[in-house]
Specification:
homodimer; alpha/beta; Rossmann fold; formyl-coa transferase, domain 3; six-stranded parallel β-sheet; three-stranded antiparallel β-sheet; 18 helices; 14 strands; 40% helix; CoA-transferase_III_domain (chains A, B)
Chain lengths: 377, 377
């Protein structure tokens, strides 16, 4: 596939397709490249120049060629690349591809088997189609922020760019669906993914809850809305998750935390009553947890049969035994020799190894090989 | 495809496949059905009995048959269904399918073209494989919570079940990839999706940032870490997003908010200095915004060329003009006659209409039609 995408949603989509076996040729602006090459954190390359660790983390296993879509000779190379391609991906503001002369009508008449994947902030249609795409804006407009944060507190941004990433994964689904249908029809399609649209499909039960209960849902904090105790609790050092989903687990929890009075307290006898008095119960649980660290508590709670889990920070994530057993981190050598771990592809097929991860390319790194392959030099 | 999944991650995956054109036959436990049928909010069905709006929102366009995988006659029907199926989806705890006699080895030897999609909390391998899957636990273990929340505050759950939903979308990708490869090889695959794994692939730049900067990233609040002002601001009524990404936009913002002294303040002259003094600047901006509601400010800011957007709550989402122009809400009649809007499929193909959304089925609703179709009655 040919990849005109920049920054995050598009490159994330094409990286996943590369992970799944696609050959991805990244077409970048001469001299500048993907904007993500200019976003930190930076590492020093072999020449001591800054090289983007951010770019490195979302462009593995791709090839790079620098072409200007405004230059006639470069356009000829670009069109030669399209001749062999199954998919073209782009995440310009809608209308930009038309101005390049590569709108869907023009492309599909010349390359009828080509699938065009377009990712934008608001989609190819509708009144906001030409507005710029910002992750935070679509998180805010899509309602996810209105549900995230402390109960009664302000709306809160999800701490990862879920606006971009959800769009990227849904674009992968759209491309695959178009390829599956092309096998039958022989014709490509224009996949139109809007970052805002994909936020709506993450809302899960909130839409229906609002319509049935006629109450606008607000931030729900870090506890289960209808099971108590089930949520995040603070220990002597660090937080942990305790998920005592029924009366028996709750009584077991009281035993292991030596909270005899809590176990007998009429406010805490049933789940519905515990939900009503969740603040008082959380205070007592955190008082008991204050004697040990989260790391010390987890084996004790697990031993007692209480569902629980660590609150991993990023350092903890990288150490996590399950994630390491699943080979969820790929170590790749970045420009300058630093070895960086990035998230592996989470799509696994039993009995198969992913072994074809290659580091992200330097700008224009594959020009000569590609031109030779096309017979253009 | 045949669908044994329950509650959220699995049904979300199979709903998306149904939206894309797959025929999905939901096999449910007799008398009980999908656990989601017992999760609120509830509406009254035609008999005045409670019917789950939650189930309704994630099971559209599927058929339902009740079969016990422990009953010989029902197993024969189930296996007859598998004979014609491309895909079987399940989200039991790993090991459960083996106990039913339907582990991957057994299935693939009898149905070599079948794709088995398994979704679990921690995957089919690794030390935690048999632990139960809870959205909050994988959100905590996967690191997303450690990045979400107010700066300096506690880790915060993302207000939607991103643990389940990310697993569901990645399962769709895995199923499609397996079907594309099957067209070449003639053989199915076992797709193994772990909710925890998919959390890692959402972490975006956090993994690399930590490794390069050697500082464990914490909650980053609702503002851009390196552009100011860019984030959520409070108005007289409601919050809004302002994304003044450069010096010129910042000066324009000062003009429209009539903050002459802020515009001249040396602390706010450059973006890096604005980032350093972001709290002081936010206080001044919110002081200025306090004179009008978010709804009043948005057209004024837009007119002045300041990138901005509404902080939609769920009611605002349902009213949003762009989302309505994109037909992002599907109105379907729930049991009892209430019409509920659910999120439409966000995967669009230019020039095509999705028109085949059907309401979620009642338990066992399609038994007779299915048995007739199979020649079993």
């Amino acid at each position: 596939m040919i990849d005109l995408t920049r920054v995050l949603a598009g490159p994330y989509c094409t990286m996943m397709l590369a992970d799944l076996g696609a050959r991805v040729i990244k077409v970048e602006m001469p001299g500048i490249g993907d904007d993500a090459r200019h976003i930190g954190p930076f590492i020093s390359n072999a020449d001591g120049l800054p090289s983007s660790g951010y770019f490195f983390s979302i462009n593995r296993s791709k090839e790079s060629i620098a072409l200007s879509l405004k230059d006639a000779a470069d356009r000829a190379i670009f069109e030669r690349l399209l001749l062999d391609a199954d998919v073209l991906a782009e995440n310009f503001t809608p209308g930009t591809m038309d101005r390049f002369g590569y709108g869907w009508e023009a492309l599909s008449s010349r390359f009828p088997r080509l699938v065009l994947a377009s990712i934008s902030g608001f989609g190819q249609t509708g009144p906001y189609r030409e507005l710029p795409a910002y992750d935070m804006v679509v998180q805010a407009m899509g309602g996810v922020m209105s549900l995230t944060g402390e109960e009664g507190g302000p709306p809160t941004r999800v701490g990862v760019s879920i606006g971009d990433i959800a769009a990227g994964t849904h674009a992968v689904i759209g491309v695959q669906a178009a390829l599956i249908e092309r096998a039958r029809t022989g014709r490509g399609k224009h996949v139109d993914i809007s970052m805002l649209d994909t936020q709506i499909s993450l809302l899960e039960n909130a839409l229906v809850r609002y319509q049935v209960e006629q109450v606008v849902p607000g931030p729900i904090g870090s506890r289960h809305p209808s099971i108590t105790p089930f949520g995040v609790f603070k220990s002597k050092v660090g937080h942990l998750i305790i998920a005592a989903g029924n009366d028996r687990k709750f009584r077991d929890l009281c035993d292991v935390l030596q909270m005899r009075d809590v176990k007998a307290d009429p406010r805490f006898l049933s789940n519905s009553s515990r939900c009503e008095h969740h603040r008082a119960l959380a205070a007592r649980i955190e008082e008991a947890l204050a004697t040990r660290t989260a790391e010390e508590w987890l084996p004790i709670l697990t031993q007692a049969g209480i569902p629980c889990g660590p609150m991993n920070d990023i350092a903890g994530v990288l150490r996590d035994p399950q994630l390491n057993a699943r080979d969820m981190f790929v170590s790749l050598e970045a420009p300058g020799g630093m070895v960086l771990k990035t998230a592996a592809c989470p799509i696994r097929f039993a009995g198969e190894q992913f072994a074809n991860y290659r580091p992200a390319p330097e700008l224009d790194a594959d020009r000569n090989a590609l031109l030779q392959e096309l017979g253009l030099v």
